[in-house]
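Late entry, written up from scratch paper. The run itself happened at the end of the previous shift, but nothing got recorded in the book at the time, so transcribing now.
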Amino acid sequence: MFPNNLFENPDRLNRLIDIAQSSFLPLVKGALLYSVTIALVSFAIGLIIAVFTALARISGIRPLVIIARIYVSIIRGTPLLVQLFIIFFGLPSIGVRLDPIAAAIIGFSLSVGAYSSEVIRAAILSIPKGQWEAAYSIGMTYMQALKRVILPQATRVSIPPLSNSFISLVKDTSLAAAITVPEMFRKAQEIVASTYEPMLLYIEAALIYWVICFLLSILQDRIEIRLDRYI
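Output as recorded:
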């Protein structure tokens, strides 16, 4: 905790400054090498899962619809932290042992896949039926119409909510600390254990998360502006 007379105690202030400076690079390293990297990989895999899940939901094929709905319901209806624990701590009980990073990527990918599938499904359904009819009228098959006409338009609609999902995912990677992934929050916990300065380290970690998400928000705005020019 920060004492009320912090600025009246130069030794204490200097110690806090030294800790903040010495911990900055390890925290940033944890953020870039693990937090952001895991988020990128998980989001990419999750989007693939999301597209197939969304297509299964709108396919009209009853077994696929049921499987997709059950998957989405389970993932959306249970806490992400519990899912990570099941994957990392639960699977070894049935003989499946995973590296912490692999377990984190699987957990985050499944989460992204479930939530993003609803975004993609809604985006596809938002495209007017006339677009399908126009594609069919020029001889396109279902898959050709989907690939060349529907998905490009749905992508523009889904970019804003998917961008928000990615920013949320970057913050959610802090949960990976619970399964020993050495990402930024885990690094902060390790430094706290040796310095006994939780307030300082957790505020510093929070600020780094904020800077990363702020930069991603700027990138999101620029992508949306560029897409608007083509709509």
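The domain at 6-228 is CATH 1.10.3720.10 (MetI-like fold).
(Scratch paper discarded after transcription.)
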